[in-house]
Amino acid sequence: MTEPLTPKGSQTWSQSLSPASIPVLQAQGLGKRFQEGPLDVQVWQNLELSVQAGDTLAIVGASGSGKSTLLHVLGGLEAPSEGQVWWAGQNWQQLNLAEQGRWRNQHLGFIYQFHHLLGELSALENVAMPLRIRRWSVADSQARAADMLHAVGLGQRLQHRPAELSGGERQRVAIARALVTQPACVLADEPTGNLDRTTATQVFDLMLGLAQQQATALVLVTHDEQLAQRCGQRAHLSAGQLVMA
User: Fold this and answer.
1) Helix, strand or coil for residue 54?
2) pTM for the whole thing?
3) 4 in any annotated domain
4) CA 84 – CA 30 distance, rounded (Å)
5) pLDDT tens digits, residue range 148-204?
6) Are 181 and 104 in contact (CB under 8 A)?
7) Domain annotation covers residue 12
8) I need a labelling partner for 176 at 20 to 30 A (CA). Which of 5, 49, 107, 149 fits?
9) CA 229: distance to chain centroid?
10) 229: domain range?
11) Could you give the number of structural domains in the chain?
């Protein structure tokens, strides 16, 4: 993959702070409960998590154990009921909504089971979108997006829209979009759940390889034990507790 473009005034993760000294993602005393009328359900409590640059962590657990909710809380998409989450040393709960959005764009990438690509945009435009949100120029953002699409093997699909791509190709575009900003951490929720075994393995190989090149941490929720075993760390979410394997 070619060297990333870095427009004037922007910083990559490695330039903005030392990944060796500060966890890219950290949680302490984390708890989540849902209350509706008389119903009060404690999903999990007192969770502790610390992820350094380049770490790969798989979180496994039964359906309904709260794995996806945990990713949403770690990514700032939902608020915890108790406890704290830090992104790159910053307590995100001390940020207002606009600041949270900027930090999320700067330090986090997301990959979901469903690609969530914008159907009216080309692969190139979808991947460039996070950089356009950073106010990169169209030329710079599309040049960087093209680099990432070449890196995921879609250099000949730049102008194709999601409907013109296979399931595996759409997920490759989603990976390129998640990694185009060189985030400190990627949160992935069943990213290969809709793919056949061969395609899932290829897509996961790609995720691991690109994350390693960029020293990007990967936190993965999956039911796939084969994929989980390939991560450097594994944790099991059960009975409201997160236990490292």
Assistant:
1) coil
2) 0.81
3) no
4) 6
5) 898 888 888 899 999 999 888 888 898 889 888 888 898 998 887 777 788 788 778
6) no
7) no
8) 49
9) 19
10) 19-244
11) 1
